[in-house]
Design a protein that fits this description.
Structural class: alpha/beta
Helix content: 25-40%
Strand order of the largest sheet: 8-11-12-7-13-14-15-16
Strand content: 25-35%
Largest sheet: 8 strands, mixed
Number of helices: 9
Number of strands: 17
Radius of gyration: 20 Å
Length: 337
C-alpha cells in the first residue's frame, strides 16, 4: 500500500486531489494508507486544511512522516515550477509521482523533466483523468465500432470564467493554452491519434484597464495523421462554463458533456438515440488506476514511457501553438490609455 503526499495546497491539492483520494479509497479500501501528508510553505496556502490531512511546512518535515519508497507524491504546484519541484522530490528519494497537467510549459522544462526521470528512475503519471472516466470509454467505443462511419472532425470546448486566479501573482500558467487545453488534447490524441498544429489563436484577458497577456481565450487547430481535423477552443473570460467534445462522423455526430466541477460528477452523452446522464467521477477513477499501477509495475515497464510520451507530445503541441501566436511574457500589465 502506498501513502499519499500532496505537494501544493492550492485548489488542485487541497480540493480536487484530497477529495478524489478518499472517494477512490471508499471503493478500494486497500488502495492507500493514511494519513494524507501535505506540504506547502506558503502561510496562506489553500485556506483550511481538509479533514484527514496532516499539513507540514517543508519537504524535510513531510519526509519524516513518510517512507519515500512507499509514497506517491501528488505534484499540485504551478506548472512553471515543475522541474524545480521534481528535482527536490527526486533528491529526497521519492520515485512515484502524479503530476498535475501540463507536464511542462516549454521544451526546455520538458527536457529537464525527462533528464530527472531518466537519472532517478522516476515513475511519472500526468493527471489525465478525462481519459480514465466512463464518458471517455464510451467515446472510444463509439470510434472503434465505426457504427457511424469514419471519424471526420473533433471539436472540444472548454470555457470557464477564471478572472481572480489568472490575475493573481504567481499563477504559474503562461497562457490560456496551459490551463484547460491539456485535458482535451490528451483525449483527442487518444481518440484520433498523433497530430500537428495547423493554426492557433490567443487573446489577452482584459478587465477594464488591467490586462493579462495570453490569458483570455485560445484556439488550436490540428490535423491528425489519419486525416481527422480537430479544433480545441477555451475561453477563460466566458460568462458560463462548458466542457464538451463533439465527434463528427460520416453519418452522425456525438456530443459528450463532461462534469463541470467537483460539485457534481454527472456526465452527459448526446447521440441520435437521445441523451444519457450518468455519474462519472473521472478523477477518482484515474487515481484508483494510477495507484494500482504504482503498486504493481516496476519502473522498467514500457507503459510508463508510453504514457509519459503522450503527455510530452501534448506539451510539444502547446509549444507549437504558442509559437504560432508569438506569445510574450504573460505578465499582468495596464492597458495604455
Amino acid at each position: 500500500m502506498r501513502q499519499p503526499l500532496i505537494v501544493g495546497l492550492g485548489r488542485s491539492g487541497a480540493g480536487l486531489h484530497t477529495r478524489a483520494l478518499h472517494t477512490a479509497r471508499a471503493g478500494a479500501p486497500r488502495l492507500w494508507k493514511g494519513p494524507v501528508v501535505a506540504v506547502d510553505p506558503r502561510p496562506a496556502a489553500g485556506g483550511p486544511v481538509p479533514d484527514g490531512v496532516v499539513r507540514t511546512r517543508s519537504l524535510t518535515e513531510a519526509a519524516a512522516l513518510l517512507t519515500p519508497a512507499a509514497t506517491v507524491a501528488h505534484v499540485c504546484t504551478p506548472p512553471d515550477t515543475r522541474p524545480a519541484v521534481l528535482a527536490v522530490l527526486a533528491a529526497a528519494g521519492f520515485r512515484d509521482l502524479i503530476v498535475e497537467k501540463p507536464l511542462a510549459t516549454g521544451l526546455a522544462d520538458l527536457a529537464a523533466v525527462e533528464r530527472l526521470r531518466d537519472a532517478h528512475g522516476l515513475r511519472i503519471t500526468v493527471v489525465a483523468h478525462w481519459l480514465a472516466g466512463e464518458l471517455a470509454r464510451r467515446l472510444r467505443e463509439t470510434v472503434a465500432s465505426a457504427e457511424h462511419g469514419p471519424l471526420l472532425r473533433v471539436e472540444a470546448v472548454q470555457h470557464k470564467p477564471r478572472f481572480l486566479r489568472s490575475l493573481r501573482p504567481g499563477d504559474g500558467h503562461p497562457t490560456a493554452f496551459d490551463v484547460e487545453m491539456p485535458h482535451a488534447l490528451g483525449l483527442v490524441r487518444d481518440l484520433a491519434g498523433p497530430a500537428e498544429v495547423t493554426g492557433a489563436h490567443l487573446t489577452d484577458l482584459r478587465i477594464g484597464a488591467v490586462v493579462r497577456p495570453g490569458m483570455g481565450s485560445a484556439r488550436l487547430d490540428l490535423r491528425h495523421t489519419g486525416g481527422v481535423r480537430t479544433r480545441v477552443v477555451s475561453d477563460l473570460a466566458a460568462p458560463v462554463r462548458e466542457r464538451s467534445v463533439t465527434l463528427t462522423f460520416a453519418r452522425a455526430a456525438v456530443t459528450a458533456h463532461f462534469p463541470l466541477s467537483a460539485d457534481d460528477d454527472h456526465a452527459q452523452l448526446v447521440t441520435g438515440r437521445g441523451r444519457e446522464v450518468f455519474r462519472d467521477d473521472a478523477l477518482a477513477a484515474f487515481l484508483t488506476r494510477t495507484y494500482h499501477r504504482h503498486a504493481t509495475l516496476d519502473s522498467g515497464h514500457p507503459s510508463w514511457r508510453a504514457a509519459f510520451d503522450v503527455q510530452a507530445d501534448v506539451v510539444r503541441l502547446l509549444v507549437a501553438a504558442k509559437a504560432h501566436c508569438g506569445h510574450g511574457t504573460g505578465e499582468v500589465t495596464r492597458a495604455a490609455g
